[in-house]
Amino acid sequence: MRGPDPAADPWRRLMGIAYESIILFGVLWFADYAFSALTQFRGHPGALRTAFQVFTLGVLAAYFTCFWSAGRRSLPMKTLALQLQARNGAPVSAARAFARFVAAVALAIAALAAARYLHPALALLLLAPYAWTLVDGDRRALHDIIAGTRLVHVAPPAAPRSVDV
């Protein structure tokens, strides 16, 4: 039996965020276009705008819950050899993956609210969950601590050796 996988370093985590953002641009563009086409939403304030925001958040929740749970990984996670695990190294359940998503969104909303209502410089609090990986012994972000998860670097499978005949 192999030992626990090493925690993902901050650089690999940052590259994962950047790559995931590129993929999510396309996912959200198509989903939000479909919403706008079906509802004739044009961006005006009101109930339809709130429904649009809730729909977009729901698409993100479904995407991340799906790719973080049961040992599944998104394309960026596979490319960068990242996997989300529970504290004990087991695959993450859908409930725990959703809790991680909710924690990350709640931390971001809290930072944005502090920036809007207290002082604009508090927008830097958006970086706090990721900055925490620099001081945490297991390199966990704040939302990982809240949800009881850890992002790890998994070694890619060894390439099969060719046998000379």
Describe the structure.
There is one protein chain. By secondary structure, the chain is mainly alpha-helical. The protein has one domain (10-153). It has helices at residues 10-39, 47-68, 75-79, 94-117, 128-131, 142-147; strands at residues 82-86, 149-153. Strands 1-2 form a two-stranded antiparallel sheet. Helix 1 packs across helix 2 (47-68) and helix 2 crosses helix 4. The model has no long low-confidence stretch (mean pLDDT 93).
SSE map:
Layout: H1 10-39, H2 47-68, H3 75-79, E1 82-86, H4 94-117, H5 128-131, H6 142-147, E2 149-153
Antiparallel strand pairs: 1-2
Helix pairs in contact: 1-2, 2-4
Main beta-sheet strand count, sense and barrel state = 2 strands, antiparallel
Order of the strands making up the biggest sheet: 1-2
Q: Report Rg.
A: 19 Å
Structural class: mainly alpha
List the domain count as a whole number. Answer: 1
Which regions have little confidence, pLDDT < 50, spanning 5+ residues?
Answer: none
Give the fraction of residues assigned to helices: 55-70%
β-strand amount: 5-15%
**For the terminal residues, how far apart are their CA atoms?**
33 Å
Order of helices and strands, N to C?
A: HHHEHHHE
What is the approximate shape? globular
Assembly context of the chains? single chain
Q: If helices are DSSP runs of H or I spanning 4 or more residues, what is the number of helices?
A: 6
Key attributes of the depicted protein:
two-stranded antiparallel sheet, 165 residues, globular, 2 strands, mainly alpha
